[in-house]
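pinned: reference chain
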Amino acid sequence: MLFTPTAAYETILSVTPEVLKSMGVTAIILDIDNTCTTHDNPKPIDGLFEWLDSMRAAGIKMMIVSNNHVPRVTPFAELLGLDFIPEGAKPLPKGYKQAAKKLGVKKSEIVTIGDQLFTDILGAKLFGIKSILVKPIEPEKTRFFKIKRAAEKPFLPKKYL
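pinned: its structure tokens
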């Protein structure tokens, strides 16, 4: 199914290098908003720097693909020390394709981690890579996102690990 992630976790911090290795993953494409931080927040969630360090220590490559614009993505990516693709056009394959080329690994070795079925997970499916859905850090406040989240509900996994 197009909206079914490969796996689902409560938070990005629950995804360990061991989990990724068991999936055959050597590279991660990360979402920003409601995955690594809350919307428009310039600071990552507590524990993210340590999580990134554990991934780096395990030899896992990472980069950000975001639908946000350069002024939002650049400072956040630089703070994390990650390369990035802004205006990634998710769920279209464009941003994923650019990231895969930059990461220099086979598609079978890439996973995307994000909080939205209709952008992150669908985009991963359309590009042909694995996906991990995480619960949003906080409920969105805009009407657009409230409608989008309501539309996602029937497709959400029954259980997050």
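why pinned: The beta strands are 7-9, 27-30, 61-65, 83-85, 110-114, 130-134. The longest helix spans residues 70-80.
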